[in-house]
Write a structure and sequence with these properties.
The complex is a heterodimer of chains A (about 260) and B (about 425). By secondary structure, chain A is α/β, with parallel strands linked by helices. Chain A has eight helices and eight strands, in the order E-H-E-E-H-H-H-H-E-E-H-E-E-E-H-H. In chain A, the strands form two sheets. A five-stranded mixed beta sheet of chain A has the order 4-5-6-7-8, with no helix packed on it. The longest helix of chain A has 23 residues. In chain B, the strands form three sheets. In chain B, strands 3-4-5-6-7-8 form a six-stranded parallel beta sheet. Classes of the chains: A alpha/beta (about 260), B alpha/beta (about 425). Chains A and B meet through helix 1, helix 2, helix 5, strand 4 and helix 6 of A and helix 1, strand 1, strand 2, strand 3 and helix 2 of B. The structure holds iron/sulfur cluster. Chain A: InterPro entries: DNA_repair_put, DUF4130. Chain A: It comes from Gaoshiqia sediminis. Chain A: This is TIGR03915 family putative DNA repair protein.
Chain lengths: ~260, ~425
């Protein structure tokens, strides 16, 4: 019986799983060191992240999980929802300990909740594909700001690399302050020390934009306004598919300059 | 005075918006040799208009001039409206530049008929040819096949487009003759058949030669206007079912008639577009495509119109109470799908989950079954049939009263199926994440 603390990374979490097996620990709760409320009466144990141990757990998980669920542990972990560690921990134990696959046991609370959380995280990933809006800058770079609820930008890289193979692009997560840059050959993670775009809505400073950029934004907005059918107005439906928090990045939803 | 590009775009987007189809789904097109773009078979919506519809494609007309005079069409020649015509290059530039900014999945190009069908079709074809060959564009292209255009032009268009469509618009031949005397079922069905055969031929050839060029790989679709004619829902669904099975269409769109030409006395005077009816038709369409219903199970000869108060699946259950209750822990998937309040996703989860344990109502609720509705049609473990001695009419009124409080506005034609997302690829480095 122990209260386990880890550094908050996914590797750290996987290390915890490893140690639970190795040291025969039965955790009562699992939480980030930073989130731990000091409590004198609880026995706590800090687990130090070990990439090798984490890697071993990850690989055995990959071997066990169904094709559709290979990313599930990572995706639900990224949700950072409260209590996710224990749910995921119990799920992983069952995956390892059970003779047959338990991944569709939706009568089990953990399995069902993890599936639901996974769906939420995937939806957020999908929304990046939907609502990224590139602005073309003078040096030919296509820049897009994002602010996803979860840290899912890395899951979209392959999509954008395949689709925009012949243009330079940079998608930047404003909230987490890092981005993915594609240089026509490969993608890499970057952190911009000097920001030439607005910290709130990601708009690139006007003097750095390519000449026709504003024209195309205006054309797009004109198009958007003219395909609307006023007789069918239905804002509730619009918001359900396109929550307001994305609007500031969308030229079609910005007020006319 | 010369029109600006923006003026043209406004006019030609306005003129195209009554075609409701906007889907970019049905084909996985790879980007080739570092060109621009690809297509995902699930389709992606990039925005949503104030009326809540998905914006996936740049949907415009090449021109809204037209030599025809169809009664239901805003672009008919007898209307006095601003007119515009794009050049081929203008459409190409708009598509590429919108695409590069991730505004769209591709292009949906249609047109009024100028000069003659061949002249019109050729311009549409040239746009796609330029996009594919000159711009090396691999995004999604949906092209309208102009009825009456030569088979050769349609064949060429099919080599570049992902999807072709011919709109039938009016569900029965006599009504079509009355409202669009210059058209006939024949001129619409001819290209439709040609496209179907082209697709079949391509599929056969590809089995022999892997490199056979694709022909309309995302299939074809059509649109029907609802409420402009006295045709019944049963007639519409029978036609739709025929299109899905015989013509192998991928999608049928139903467009509630908007009174755009009020002066034309051949058309009914409507206060507002029949949105509820349109929504019920979409629901019926889903029942046929995803719930394995046949058209004649949804509407019978005695009941040719859909009930506007309740959805067609509930209506079916009430008409067939002898098939219920369904035992959640034993019934086969097909039957579980037919229970009101259980969707495709829940039905699949039930069948998966019951292999591990007997499911009870608590499980069902968690899985996402709408028990308020389903409880009258199922038994599961501890849950007795809740139907009492109600007859179908009473039960219907009871259910309507229950869901009246939180009735959703109709009009959502997006169906989300599980899995929602295509295989989103994992990041290159599996174990690389920030805290
Ligand atoms: S042919 Fe098409 S564009 Fe022309 S009037 Fe008829 S429906 Fe309208």
């Amino acid at each position: 019986m122990a209260f386990l603390l880890y550094d908050g990374t996914f590797e750290g979490f996987l290390t915890v799983v490893f140690e639970c097996y190795a040291q025969k620990l039965a955790p009562v709760d699992l939480c980030k060191e930073t989130a731990f409320q000091k409590n004198l009466f609880i026995k706590k144990l800090s687990i130090h992240t070990d990439e090798q141990k984490a890697g071993r757990v990850w690989r055995s998980l990959q071997a066990k999980l169904h094709r559709q669920n290979k990313n599930l542990p990572l995706l639900v972990f990224l949700s950072e929802s409260t209590g996710i560690e224990m749910k995921l921990y119990r799920f992983i134990r069952r995956v390892f300990d059970s003779g047959r696959s338990i991944e569709t046991d939706f009568g089990d609370q953990d399995v069902l909740e993890l599936k639901k959380i996974e769906r939420q995280v995937l939806r957020e990933t999908m929304r990046i594909l939907q609502f990224v809006r590139f602005q073309q800058s003078r040096d030919g770079l296509f820049f897009a700001p994002v602010e996803p609820e979860f840290d899912v930008l890395p899951f979209t890289i392959n999509h954008f690399r395949e689709r925009f193979a012949d243009q330079l692009w940079l998608i930047y997560d404003i909230k987490r302050d890092y981005g993915i840059f594609y240089d026509l050959k490969e993608t890499r993670e970057v952190v911009l020390s000097e920001k030439t775009f607005s910290q709130t809505d990601g708009k690139v400073s006007a003097n750095l934009l390519e000449e026709t950029e504003e024209t195309y934004q205006t054309l797009w907005k004109a198009y958007f306004d003219h395909i609307n059918i006023p007789e069918r107005e239905n804002e509730k439906l619009q918001l359900q598919h396109m929550p307001r928090r994305y609007w500031k990045f969308l030229p079609e939803k910005s007020p006319i300059k | 005075m010369e029109q600006t590009l923006q003026e043209k775009l406004k006019i030609l987007a306005d003129a195209a918006k009554y075609d409701v189809s906007c889907s970019s789904s049905g084909n996985n097109r790879q980007n080739t040799n570092g060109g621009l773009g690809n297509a995902l078979s699930c389709g992606v919506c990039h925005s949503f208009t104030d009326d809540g519809r998905c914006v996936s494609l740049l949907k415009i007309l090449m021109t809204n001039h037209c030599i025809y005079d169809c009664a239901y069409c805003i672009n008919r020649r007898s209307n006095d409206r601003p007119r515009a015509t794009f050049t081929v290059q203008e459409v190409v530039d708009l598509t590429i530049n919108f695409y590069r900014r991730n505004y769209i999945e591709g292009l949906f190009l249609s047109s009024g008929v100028i000069k003659n069908p061949d002249f019109t079709m050729e311009r549409l074809m040239l746009v796609t040819q330029n996009l594919r060959l000159k711009e090396r564009f691999n995004g999604y292209i949906h092209l309208k096949a102009i009825p009456g255009a030569s088979p050769e032009l349609i064949r060429q268009a099919g080599l570049y487009a992902d999807r072709l469509s011919v709109n039938i618009e009016i569900p029965t031949e006599p009504e079509l003759k009355r409202l669009a005397p210059e058209k006939s079922f024949g001129t619409v069905l001819q290209p439709m058949n040609q496209i179907k055969e082209g697709i079949q031929l391509y599929k056969e050839e590809r089995r022999k030669f892997r490199k056979t060029p694709a022909f309309t790989p995302a299939g074809q679709s059509t649109q029907l206007i609802v409420g402009a004619t006295p045709d019944s829902d049963r007639q519409i669904l029978q036609l739709a079912s025929g299109f899905y099975h015989e013509q192998q269409l991928k999608r049928i769109y139903y467009s509630g008639y908007l009174p755009v030409n009020e002066y034309d006395k051949r058309l009914p005077a409507l206060q507002s577009p029949p949105l509820v009816r349109e929504n019920r038709l979409y629901q019926s369409d889903w029942l046929m495509r995803f719930y394995h219903f046949r058209a004649d199970e949804i509407l019978t000869p005695e009941q040719p119109f859909l009930d506007l108060d309740i959805d067609p699946k509930l209506a079916y259950a009430l008409r067939n109470l002898h098939l219920f209750p369904v035992d959640i822990n034993r019934a086969d998937y097909e039957m579980i799908l037919r229970v009101p309040g259980i969707g495709v996703q829940s039905a699949k989860m039930i069948v998966d989950a019951r292999r591990f344990r007997k499911l009870n109502s608590y499980h069902l609720k968690k899985i996402g079954v709408v028990l308020k509705r389903a409880q009258y049609f199922i038994t599961c473990n501890e849950l007795p049939v809740y139907r009492g001695n109600w007859d179908p009419g009473q039960l219907k009124n009871h259910l309507i009263a229950e869901c009246h409080t939180k009735r959703k506005k109709p009009g959502d034609t997006q169906l989300s199926l599980f899995p929602l997302i295509p295989a989103l690829s994992a990041p290159a480095k599996q174990l690389h994440f920030k805290s």
